[in-house]
Structures are given as C-alpha cells and as structure tokens.
Design a protein that fits this description.
By secondary structure, the chain is mostly beta strands. Helices cover 0% and strands 37% of the residues. It starts with a strand and ends with a strand.
Length: 197
C-alpha cells in the first residue's frame, strides 16, 4: 500500500487554510487463508487419531499426542518441525500408560507433560513426563479409587513455568465423594502436580 500526502486549500471563517490529509492509494486487499499440511498421520506406526491440541515451542517445533498408533497401537507423543516428524514416545499400555486423549504441555526446559486415558498400575491412566530425548517417566498412576480414573484433560503450567499450577490439570471419570470434585497433588523433586477428580 502506498500512502501520499495531499494538500487542499480551503477557507475557514474567511481565512485561507491549507489542510494536509493522508490518502491510501492502492490499499492492500485481504489475502485468502492458505492451508499447509505439515504432517499426515497415514503411517500407523507414527501415531493415529490425534485428538489433543498440539503445542508450539519457541523454535517452531510442534508437539502433540495421538490416541492410537505407535508400536502397540496405544498412542504416541510426537514432535514435528523443520527437522521432520519424530515419535518421542510410543505408549506400550503397561505401567507407562495408554491412549492419551489430550495434548501435552511443554515446560521451559522442553519437557512434555500429559495424561493417558488408560494404562498404569490399575489401567486407570497415568500422569507422565517425556523429556526432549524421549525418556518417559510416570509421575502418577491413577488407582481408580478416590483419586479418580481415566483422565480426559491434561496438565498445565503455572506462571513461573512450573508443572503445574494449583488449578485443574486432569479430570477423572470416576465419581467423587458427595462433596463433588477433589483436588489431588503429586509432589516430586522440586515440582508439584495438581489435578481435579
């Protein structure tokens, strides 16, 4: 868009006045949206059925999860970007968890945190951490009792970038006591992890 100043001589209360205006010449028109496919989940071993919202890191890499696919067809944690697509962790369905419904949360160090719907010690889901190198650690395994089971939601960061803040991080399917929802907290080395059941 090119702009130009235009001088106009007018009279105001009988006195000559010069007004300057800025005019847009050839104003830019809105550009249509263009869709770019960055990955197609056509190869089942790379994951399938990505239900959760992906997260973007400062370098432009996109991280996410799939509900199915991977080595055991129980979902994966993945990264895609300029270096291509990579499965960081493939869930096996044992104590490591299975079938994440939600995306992962990225901390400032590049670690990913999330939940799985199934798997874990009681097959009631887990809260996990996956490092940038793909090492998974189970932070909590739901028992299906008072702590809930089968979480649909993920974990969140607090304002300092710690995982997570004292807020809802995971919602279990099992019924809670008559009072309603309960907040549960896992405390690990230097971190506290909250979720609500």
């Amino acid at each position: 868009m090119k702009t130009t100043r235009v001088a106009r001589n007018i009279s105001l209360l009988g006195l000559p006045v010069c007004l300057w205006t800025v005019a847009a010449i050839g104003a830019a028109q809105a550009q249509p949206a263009v869709e770019h496919i960055i990955h197609t989940f056509g190869n089942f071993s790379n994951g399938a059925s990505p239900y959760g919202t992906p997260v973007l890191d400062p370098s432009g890499n996109l991280y996410g999860t799939t509900y199915q696919g991977g080595a055991a067809n129980l979902g994966v944690v993945f990264r895609t970007g300029n270096a291509g697509y990579k499965v960081l962790h493939s869930f096996k369905g044992g104590t490591d968890g299975a079938n994440p419904y939600t995306g992962a949360t990225l901390d400032p160090a590049g670690n990913l945190y999330g939940t799985t719907y199934q798997g874990g010690a009681a097959n009631a889901g887990v809260v996990y951490k996956v490092t940038p190198a793909g090492q998974e650690t189970v932070l909590y395994s739901f028992t299906g009792a008072a702590d809930g089971a089968n979480p649909y939601a993920g974990v969140i960061l607090d304002s300092a970038g710690n995982v997570p803040a004292a807020a809802i991080a995971s919602v279990g399917q099992d019924s809670s006591p008559a009072a309603g929802l309960q907040t549960r907290r896992f405390t690990g080395p230097g971190r506290a992890l909250d979720w609500v059941i």
